[in-house]
């Protein structure tokens, strides 16, 4: 009898332990901290509002925006996972928070992921930002396609987004009930769902060495008076990869009446990169913006050399010249404005560390 009780006790303990282990395996979770710290010394010509004067400064976020974040995932079983990302942008030169001082201004979302894709809620990149980074050879460096259109790295508040990866095909869609909550009455207004609204959809596909992408983005004014004003972007891109060589081509058409007068413009770009050796990569890009029914245009030429000191640390040299025509006043960087019709040169030498 005693031996039978001992045997039953051992079996019960084994069953409970097995159940606990199975439950623990089913509910595995992980949280990862990550980040990028990027700083450099920049020279910019014709940096004044009248086109005079040069600027010399320490600058943050040159080959990549400085950031730190937390990324988490929990296995819920049945192929489902709970996911979240909290990502803060900051300026190395001042230590201040970017994105208007938000704590997690780059990303702040939570969602569910499964074999069918993932659905996330919160502050997130728009579809252009998700899909087009590989389609710019400078990969959204401070001198890049962003010098012509910052919306390629647009971030929206109050967003629900779907992303599905199906082999070589990726599908994305998003809806924002108000893309900028810092504007008083600019989002999620009762009875006025169009105020601050942004929608987007896109697809990318890879066939062998060739990749392609299509994206549509639309956003409305951030007040009751401008809720029916719309800004639309249609973008397409190609990427060709052959060993150490990459070539890209892209186009974006912008149609909008958020500003007065209304805007119609075309943006074209070509780029290439080549890894001369595992540690050294050269990148080049040409970007041109033409404003329709106007003589205003701007063309920028960008070169970048990146040398890897390790898997986590790069040093780089980045240069660009912006040729403004008519009344165009694009700066070499998205945060720099030139005087109308005045060209501008920018050079940055810096270091980037990934952790």
UniProtKB/TrEMBL annotation:
Keyword Transport in record: yes
Superkingdom per UniProt: Bacteria
Major subcellular location class: membrane
Keywords on record: Cell outer membrane, Ion transport, Membrane, Porin, Signal, Transmembrane, Transmembrane beta strand, Transport
Subcellular location: Cell outer membrane
Listed PANTHER family: MAJOR OUTER MEMBRANE PROTEIN P.IA (PTHR34501:SF9), PROTEIN YDDL-RELATED (PTHR34501)
Protein name: Porin
Species assigned in the record: Cupriavidus basilensis
């Amino acid at each position: 009898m005693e031996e039978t009780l001992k045997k039953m006790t051992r079996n019960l303990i084994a069953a409970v332990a097995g159940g606990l282990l199975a439950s623990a395996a089913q509910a595995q979770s992980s949280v990862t901290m990550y980040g990028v710290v990027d700083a450099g010394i920049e020279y910019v010509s014709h940096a004044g509002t009248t086109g005079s004067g040069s600027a010399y400064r320490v600058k943050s976020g040159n080959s990549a925006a400085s950031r730190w974040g937390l990324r988490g995932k929990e296995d819920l079983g049945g192929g489902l996972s709970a996911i979240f990302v909290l990502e803060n942008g900051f300026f190395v030169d001042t230590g201040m928070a970017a994105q208007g001082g938000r704590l997690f201004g780059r990303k702040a979302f939570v969602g569910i992921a499964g074999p069918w894709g993932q659905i996330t809620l919160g502050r997130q990149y728009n579809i252009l930002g998700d899909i087009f980074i590989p389609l710019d050879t400078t990969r959204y460096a401070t001198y890049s396609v962003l010098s012509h259109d910052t919306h390629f790295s647009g971030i929206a508040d109050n967003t629900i987004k779907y992303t599905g990866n199906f082999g070589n095909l990726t599908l994305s869609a998003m809806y924002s009930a108000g893309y900028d909550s810092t504007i008083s009455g600019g989002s999620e207004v009762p009875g006025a769902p169009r105020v601050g609204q942004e929608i987007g959809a896109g697809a990318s596909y890879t066939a062998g060495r060739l990749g392609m992408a299509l994206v549509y983005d639309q956003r409305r004014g951030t007040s009751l008076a401008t809720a029916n004003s719309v800004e639309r972007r249609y973008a397409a891109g190609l990427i060709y990869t052959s060993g150490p060589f990459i070539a890209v081509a892209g186009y974006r058409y912008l149609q909008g009446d958020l500003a007065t007068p209304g805007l119609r413009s075309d943006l074209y770009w070509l780029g290439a990169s080549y890894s001369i050796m595992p540690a050294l990569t050269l990148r080049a890009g040409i970007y041109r913006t033409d404003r329709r029914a106007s003589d205003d245009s701007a063309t920028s030429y960008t070169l970048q050399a990146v040398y890897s000191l390790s898997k986590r640390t790069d040093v780089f040299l980045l240069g660009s010249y912006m040729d403004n025509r008519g009344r165009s006043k694009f700066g070499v960087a998205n945060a720099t404005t030139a005087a109308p019709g005045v060209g501008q040169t920018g050079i940055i030498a810096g270091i980037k560390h990934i952790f």
